[in-house]
Amino acid sequence: MTDDDVAQFYDSLSGSYDRLYADWAASGDRQGRALQALVEPELGPGPHSILDCSCGIGTQLIGLAPFGHRLTGTDLSPAAVARAAVECRRRNVAVQLDPADMRWLPFPDNAFDVVICIDNSVAHLLTEADLTAALTEWARVLRPGGLAILTTREYDELAAERPISPPVQVSTDAAGHRVVTTQLWDWRSDGAGYRLTHLQAHEQPGGSWRIEARTSRLRAWQREEFRDLARNAGLEPRPWLTAAEAGLHQQALVLCRPAPPQGHRQGARGAG
Predict the structure, then answer these.
(1) Are residues 127 and 177 in the same domain?
(2) Which of 139, 9, 130 is nearest to 75 (CA)?
(3) Phi, psi dihedrals of residue 2, rounded to the nearest 5°
(4) Do the domain assignments include residue 33?
(5) In whole angstroms, what is the distance from residue 42 CA to residue 147 CA?
(6) What's the whole-number average pLDDT of the chain?
(7) Any residues with CB less than 8 A from the CB of 239 and at least 6 apart, and which?
(8) 13-40 average pLDDT score
């Protein structure tokens, strides 16, 4: 599975990504409040400069907008970024949006107070080198004392159980047409990852259905793997939060870029 394959997966999904939720707008609002509740105790209410490095169609950015933050979004999928721009304009959300790979972020050092990566996006990073590259970039673009927040499926348990599918999701549009979304998971024999087949059935006028299918590979990263690689990248992990504790759909990990010792001058990227 290449970067192009992942981008094409989300390009294909971008037009109906909101249909993964029973109420996309309400879910974005809830996630924005939950993320604010994770940031505020550490950094204060803001406004803060926040980068969503897997912004998709703008779900979390739109949810964070009422708090007045300076928002930037990037995503590997150009089609998702284009839709995020449309959705943000509809809601008068001021945001800078660009296609970009989270392993090579097009921003200077110390550019953001917060980096977020939500909804299991990191599972598309299949190797330690890939995940380390992303974590290192988050540390680089964060100011000292800044936070990174990621969410991921609870793979410690899932890799042991190896379910074949998560629960089916059903949403209904304004015209009353339903979209049924499900996934099939074909696990590797060692439980370290799986091939995801994403299926959506779109109800058509007259009662027929249109089926869409797309595939991707994901890595079932374990909690301690995240913590170890984060420390190696210069980020200090807080304790993992369950989905209920975080107020999000998935378990969450907050990472802090430590401030350098007093009197230490941090070198710029590429300095000798």
Answers:
(1) no
(2) 9
(3) -100, 170
(4) yes
(5) 8
(6) 94
(7) none
(8) 95
For residue 48, the enclosing domain spans 3-157+221-256
pLDDT confidence bin for 272, thresholds 50/70/90? very low
For 160-191, b where at least 16 C-beta lie within 10 A, e where not — what string? Answer: eeeeeeeeeeebeeeeeeebbbebebebeeee
User: Is the same domain home to 54 and 91?
Assistant: yes
Q: Give per-residue pLDDT as tens, 146-167.
A: 999 999 999 999 999 999 999 9
Percent of the chain with pLDDT over 70: 95
User: In the numeric block, which tokens belong to residue 184?
Assistant: 């099939």
Between 2-6, 151-155, 231-235, the lowest mean confidence (pLDDT) is in 2-6
Residues forming beta bridges with residue 182, ordered by sequence position: 199
Structural domain contains residue 266: no
Distance CA(94)–CA(96), nearest Å, equals: 7
* CA gap 94, 235 in Å, rounded: 29
Claim to verify: residue 233 and residue 210 sit in the same structural domain: no
Structure tokens at 7: 């981008």
Q: Residue 35: which CATH number?
A: 3.40.50.150
If residue 202 lies in a helix (H) or strand (E), which one and from where to where?
Answer: strand 193-203
Q: What is the mean pLDDT of residues 62-66?
A: 98
Peptide bond into 66 cis (omega under 30): no
Inside any domain, residue 271: no
The model's pTM is 0.93
Query: Do strands 95-99 and 70-75 pair parallel, antiparallel, or not at all (unpaired)?
Result: parallel
Count of all residues that appear for the chain in the document:
272
Number of compact structural domains in the chain: 2
